[in-house]
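Reagents: none. Just compute today. Ca2+-transporting ATPase.
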Amino acid sequence: MSDPVASEPPTTDAASASKTAPWSAAPEAVLSAMESTADGLTSEEAERRLDEGGPNRLREIEHRSVAAILWEQFKSLVVLLLVAAMGVSFLFGQTVEGLAIAAVLALNTAIGFFTEWRAVRSMEALQELGQMTARVRRDGRERTVPAEELVPGDIVQLRGGDLVPADLRLIDADRLQVDESALTGESVPVDKDPAPVAPDAPLAERHSMACKGTAVAKGRGTGLVVGTGMETELGAISAMVETAGQNDTPLEQKLDQLGRRLVWLTLAIAGAVAGTGLLAGRDLLLMVETGIALAVAAIPEGLPIVATVALAHGMWVMLRRNAYIRRLSAVETLGATTLICTDKTGTLTENRMTARRMVLAGETVDLEPLPEDTPGRLRDAIDVGVLCNGAEWSPDAPDQHRGDPLEVALLQLGAQAGRPREALLEDTPVVRTVEFNRETKMMATYHEEESALRVAVKGAPEAVLEACDRVHAEDGSRPLDADERAEWLEKSDALAQDGLRVLALAQKTVGDAEASPYEGLGLLGLVGLLDPPREDVRPVIERCQEAGIRVVMVTGDHPETARTIAGAVGLRMNDHAVEQGEEFASIETLDEADRARLLRAAVFARVTPKQKLDLVDLYQASGQVVAMTGDGVNDAPALRSADIGVAMGQRGTDVAREAADMVLQDDAFSSIVAAISQGRIIFDNIRKFVVYLLSGNVGEILAVGAAAGFGFPLPLLPLQILYLNVLNDVFPALALGVGHGTGEVMDRPPRDPEEAVVTPYHWGLIGGYGVVIALTILGAFLAALQGFGMPVDQAVTVSFLTLSISRLLHVFNMRRPESGLLDNEISRTPYVWGALALCLGLLLLAVYWPPLATVLSVVPPGLNGWLLIGGASIVPLVLGQAYLGWRALWRSSA
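Predicted 3D structure written out:
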């Protein structure tokens, strides 16, 4: 390697380019602009710049305190309403009621606090990438320093296996290749060259730069530090992760809207009844007691805890399917997903190259599967790919390999053909190696044979073809003229259009190891390699699309490669199938027509991290609920900003995993469909128990309000309502919340993202069921009080038990109308039967265990009372089942 020499001071334009786009200026100009030399900085100057610019690390993010996490548990309006009801109870001396509400609040807060304990730590994961050392030139000699102490102007040495410690402008490179997949999405290492590139070159094409957080695959190089800490490309991504919005999920927003309605509903009903009573001359204390009873009846105490537990159950279901949920609400939000933005490399593909096709003179050979009878020319071509190779791979340890994935694939092809590298080298030992470089775009190895040296060459088709003067055909070697050379270039283009990476293979025989490798070659053929799609991806994507969910590929890879993979995995393409990042550098500047074009695209290629984030925002602005998958550092901002960020657990970086809401531990795209299915089931379950909770509570409100309005004794006391709400609002509702759902959830399109948990139809259903339950309670109460002449406490016990048992049976009204009367998703849930048995036991305990009976003011109802309770309690069930049967008939006829 030769060290560059500082030249004359650059011109004004060159100096500007050296600082704003160092990849576009000559190395000498960048050195001058950074006030550095090829021998590096002095220790004193480096220390001064470190004090001035700060250490080479990413900015730390401020973590939420325990108190802040705890406070977040009280932001729900339903919880605040419970707090208000608890305060009113204590204020008016209703200590038992207050303590009971406090117990419910404590349970809900504990569950919420511990499930939200794991705060997002994306910035910590990013900072871990900076904990390394670097070899720098200082004071004219090489030394090793902590990477945090690097400053702009330092000269850094790179070797194979190194992590790049800062953003470097390369000033020298010897066969240098850098793995930038985590940063750009490029699936294979990128060749580096100090030659300047265009100022507007996208990140993936800045071959004169090596960026912080990437890895040196092979070769060596020297680079000038031009960016440290937050001034690096990694730092820019870090800033986007830090500032990317993480909005409330649709479920959180909908439950908050429901809570707001309940607040106004409770205040309106309590105020109206209390005001009417006072105007009618009713006792003030009686109206206070009635107001508390109405408030307690209106508040669905079980809603926060049941929603939390239902989502937690969904989390455990997904964990058993290798999907780790980092936010509970992510389970439901996946069910509302309308669009999935997915990365390509490692997500849709296996992240490993395989040789797919070999083009020989006069024939094309499909290498999957490899022909059993390998013809001579094909065998020679495979041998060249194996011999002219710098990778390390063994069939004894196939998952352990080093080097360029393209070369690893050629070694694997050789093993499949019975031509392993070790055996070939034993027969034809290597004498000389000419490494690949960007100027020749070729690599050559010399191998000892019986009486001569065999030269094996591989490289870019246009370069190898230029070095060939003959071609090996089936009937022997023949001259390669200009017309046939053009035909071979067309064959190469055809392979590239199929998304394959193309290498040309050639050989010759020489007598001297010093003979030039790249002249007088005989062309053997072309080999096309592909990072294959994962086997389980295509049916999964088809299932998504059948369920009305769009799948869009967003990758930093080559457009033709992206197009081919999209077709292989079954993405629905259109006239605007592939958009390139360079064609929409800034989405903010696009007009409506261009935005509409982007919204129709199925594949985005050569996309930068900022553009990924912009695309998520664009889709969200169009009303989509967006799930974003990814595994690299470059995916982190979009993962965080999306409605659901889905990271790969095995191939994914720590940054991606910590930024995501869900981590696929098996990296299987199929787990996303399982998650979406579970999310839809969770939403259905949440809707069922919300309807169940509110219809029962409305029945309580109407019964108490009607009794107060007509001057009757209260059929239910506040503590009785709270006791029943804890029983009926928690245990049966929990059973509904953890139901397994039905198989048709993926046979329908996504629901409208704006659709509320409780739609107008469901409010009507809640009102209808509530009226039936209220009339049942009042009918049983008045029958006991007037028909059977029972004392008030016994009549209240009848209404208390009628309400509870009728609500327990009401759980069977939550089935889908199309399901069977006896065999349905409710009756098949064992938790429902367990909840019913538990609640009936606790009801009997409340009646026949004196301490609890005294607190609740209930007495044994007697035989007549039990007969009345049994007859009245089945009324809501019978009417509900009749309605469901009618609705099923109406739907089938429609």
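The CA atoms of residues 496 and 688 lie 53 Å apart.
Action item: order primers for follow-up constructs.
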